[in-house]
Amino acid sequence: MRAAVAKGFDAIGFSDHGPITVDCACNMRAEDFAAYRDEVRRLQTLFRGQIDVLFGLECDWLKGIQPMSFYDAFETDYRIGSVHFLCFDGEASAVDFSAESQERMVMSQFNGDWEAFVLDYYRNVEAMTAAGGFEILGHLDLVRKFNEGGRLYSEKAAAFNTAVARILEAAADNRIAVEVNTGAVGRGWRSSPYPAFWILKECRRRHLPVALNSDAHAPGGLDAFYPQALDLLREAGYGGGPTGPLRLFEG
Ligand SMILES: [Zn+2]
């Protein structure tokens, strides 16, 4: 909190990984949720007048395992909907845990077909976005995490454009903002934020609002790569500053 105030933020959102019904060390345990909520609400009161504190959750899409309505009871100020897992026969497999585990999934579930894997990821993002129940679409092309420089596959397949267009249509229909996430840049995985610049331009063309997020896991990274991301936003045609209670950049 002190870092956010020192950096001159007028608002800060907390969006820890919400509880899931799958065993995963990255997500908070259901029994820890109340302590998390109470702490953020406490900070909200403590810092009133100094900085707006928003109580959020990053909510996981787990196809066939857990519906997004699972999060309805949590009474957050805002939610980020994200796909971190692909599900096969009731088993969840993390997309972004490590390059090795991702490659194992592509080999075992997609016969080594990277394009099929990426398209399956995008289909999941589309289904989640169409289902709705959240305000911000998290790192919509997280699937690219380990593919800097196209080391695993070309990111230029025409099928990807079509898949992303369908996601953005669903976002527009449900009035969901697209997250511009600098987390992978801050942690050295990618040289530019999610989503890719061509997707950002598509967002602008469709007048979709965007939400800039450092996805910081520590105070030092709260505004990591914001100047670069703001340059990209301007280059994509976004102007002006953030607006509204969620500080979205209007499309
Ligand atoms: Zn995430």
Helix content: 25-40%
Rg for CA atoms: 18 Å
* Low confidence ranges: none
Coarse shape: globular
Query: What is the number of helices?
Result: 8
Classify the fold: give the CATH topology. Answer: TIM Barrel
User: Given this structure, which CATH class is correct?
Assistant: Alpha Beta
Description:
This protein has 251 residues and is of the alpha/beta class. The chain has one domain (2-236): Metal-dependent hydrolases (TIM Barrel). It has eight helices and eight strands. Strands 1-2-3-6-7-8 form a six-stranded parallel sheet. Helix 5 links the parallel strand 6 and strand 7 (177-181). Helix 4 runs parallel beside helix 5 (158-173) and helix 7 packs across helix 8. The longest helix has 18 residues, at 114-131. Zinc ion binds at residues 58, 82, 84, 138-139.
Question: What attributes does this structure have?
Answer:
8 helices; 251 residues; TIM Barrel; two-stranded antiparallel sheet; binds zinc ion; alpha/beta; 8 strands
Produce the secondary structure layout.
Elements: H1 2-6, E1 11-17, H2 33-46, E2 52-60, E3 78-82, E4 85-88, E5 91-94, H3 99-110, H4 114-131, E6 136-137, H5 158-173, E7 177-181, H6 183-186, H7 197-205, E8 210-213, H8 226-236
Parallel strand pairs: 1-2, 2-3, 3-6, 6-7, 7-8
Antiparallel strand pairs: 4-5
The structure holds zinc ion.
Residues 58, 82, 84, 138-139 line the site of zinc ion (ZN).
Write a concise synopsis of the structure shown.
By secondary structure, the protein is of the alpha/beta class.
